[in-house]
Amino acid sequence: MTIIEKIFAQHGNSNSVKPGQIVDIEIDARVARDFGGANVVKNLINNGLTIKDTSKTYFTFDTNPGGSDQKYAANQHYCRMFARENDIEVFDIDTGIGTHQAIERGLVQPGGTFVSTDSHANITGAIGAFGQGMGDQDIAAVWAKGKAWFKVPESAILNLHGKRPKNISAKDVVLNLLNIFGANKLLGKAVEIYGDDVDNFTLDERITISSMATEMGAIILLFTPNDTIYRILEELSGKKSPKIFADADAVYAESYDVDMTKFVPMVALPGHPHNDTTLESVKRTKIDSAFIGSCTNGRMEDMRITAEILKGRKVPKGVILKIVPSTDVIWQQCLDEGLIKIFKDAGALVSNAGCAGCAAGQVGQNGPEEITISTGNRNFRGKQGKGEVYLASPATVALSAIAGYITDEMIENDVPVEFENKGLRLKSKDIAAQESNDKALIVEGRAWLIMQDDIDTDMIFHNRYLAITDINEMGQYAFDNLEGYENYSKETQENDIIITGKNFGAGSSRQQAVDCFKALKNACILAESYGAIYERNAINAAMPILTYSPEMIAELGLKNLDIVIVDFMKGEITNKATGKTFAINPFYDVQKEIYLNDGLL
């Protein structure tokens, strides 16, 4: 049998299995991450399921270990509470990438089985183990049953002939393979890798190559562990690993021979990991940012290579470098060896261990039109942000970060590539200030009585939305963090008027807490008083705000959603339902001037 067939047979209590056969196999380690973990729990609870063996069941918080996104933070806390009640081990925010934990801690051994909500669970092929990414329902079923059904895949053998050139990293190896096989020639295959020089591949290098099996469409890229790999695994986990290898007479569906001596440094072009080209063909492409990390290239060897290049050098102005080790053990080792200081001295942002930019994690995202060179495994549109991402080796990324453009050379005193003018340069204009005659100084609309004091800016516009810069997108979040008014944006109408209590807009200086009401086309705000910064922000944004004395509500006989008329200059409010008018504080001169100018600017 092939390696995958042996694993399936051993874990399915069978003497042998064949491709195409459906087998129920025991899963040695079953993982749910912060990304999807909450849904796994909900699937268990909603279906009345219990956990088969908590000693083989784990949470790993690696996608957003800082909980810097509210949804991630909520999911993590929900999973922690479930873990406490059900005696499940959590590899929390201080541990790093879950698939790497599985290898380093011996949760999965050579010849073992591993599933996770991580699509790169097949990284375990680096140690001759079976790993598979799964959806939330699948993982919930495995947690409940301890087993999962699989179709035995066909196996293929990939022979890498010759010694790889000295300038070829493991990342270059897998990018060369992607260039040859694309995203579907190995589709659905369990691929065993052999060759003259493969035995010399380190554990870190095998992890890099196996981590991109998913991008090649393969079920898994499997290495047969040698004595060195077994020794390292035993040192890491303290566990003696079982031997795994294919039989000499194993049958393979396909056999491929590739000359590794012809491999060259490669780069994946933005959009697809398999859209590869030679590094030479994209040299001197200007970059805005660089990222070193991910499950593919966040290992200790990658960190040392990076430090060797960065030592004594600085990332130039206009370029951002982010470095994220894959595990906390590696992070600590970087600290002990002085690599963190090298990274920081070079001007890099170094984050806690984790997945970083993948799955909207907290580090490594880029913005529209930003050009990034990354050691990640995926560069699909939107995967690591809204910009363009090139994939390359850690050495190439580090050298490019220092140069400010894509390169694999260190050229002293080189002339940097100039930034392209994107049309954002400030240009002076001779604009005569003039009043807009069409600005209404008397408005009419429904009165929303939100009679609370100290409504702060987080209640008005929560900080989880602060990255929004388009005013048209802000209205939908108005009051969504104010209890009882979460649906305000859906229920309000154009020209509605907000009437509230004391100290409205207390708290932060966020402009969005004003602009969200402008986006909704609310006519004005009346409060007994305002937070000092909020008052300035509203006046400068030409959002009409006025103050009133406490007896106004009773004097007008005002009820929620009554139609009122507000005269900014006279300082009057009239309730059309009762016909009563009440004096309020009118616009003062500078407020009128800014309002008629449609804002301070």
Q: Which term fits the overall shape?
A: elongated
Number of strands: 25
Q: Output the CATH homologous superfamily of the largest domain.
A: Aconitase, domain 3
**Low-confidence regions:** 431-436
Fraction of residues in β-strands: 15-25%
Gap from first CA to last CA: 75 Å
SSE map:
Elements: H1 3-11, E1 22-26, E2 29-33, H2 37-46, E3 57-60, H3 70-86, E4 89-91, H4 98-104, E5 113-116, E6 130-133, H5 136-145, E7 147-151, E8 155-161, H6 170-181, E9 190-195, H7 203-210, E10 220-223, H8 227-237, E11 254-259, E12 266-268, E13 276-278, E14 289-292, H9 294-297, H10 300-310, E15 320-323, H11 328-336, H12 339-345, E16 349-350, E17 371-374, E18 388-391, H13 394-403, E19 442-450, H14 457-460, H15 488-491, E20 497-500, H16 512-519, E21 524-527, H17 532-540, E22 545-547, H18 552-556, E23 563-567, E24 572-575, E25 580-583, H19 589-596
Parallel strand pairs: 2-3, 2-5, 3-4, 5-6, 8-9, 8-11, 9-10, 14-15, 14-17, 15-16, 17-18, 19-20, 20-21, 21-22
Antiparallel strand pairs: 1-7, 12-13, 19-23, 23-24, 24-25
Give a concise summary.
This protein is an alpha/beta fold and 601 residues long.
